[in-house]
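Both lines are given unchanged directly below:

***
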Amino acid sequence: MYAEVLCDTGLFESLQREARVVVTGPTTLSALLNSLQMGFRTLAIEKRSSEVWEVLGAVKTEFGKFGDMLDKTKRKLQEASNVVDSAGVRSRAIERKLKDVQSLPGKKAVPYLDIAKEQNGKD
């Protein structure tokens, strides 16, 4: 039948154009099926690739927010470091002033500093 369709001049093209029928024979059937399969795979890949691009766009947005959070965290840590450094400067200044003062043993210092009350929660 395939050979008869090919012998009739213009019938093959007419069937494709007007009836939208693809005539195939035993030798061309597997090639036609393979090309259809590749076409459907290509469509599926294109659809999935657009989904992947959307996911990547969302990830890029979130990554930008994450970078902003890291910058804020870095600033806060720098501020905390500056405060600790300042406290160290103050501590060294106090130590210089108290250099000549004789220190008391731990048990004698407790009543003067109310350390026992603070440790027991009796402020």
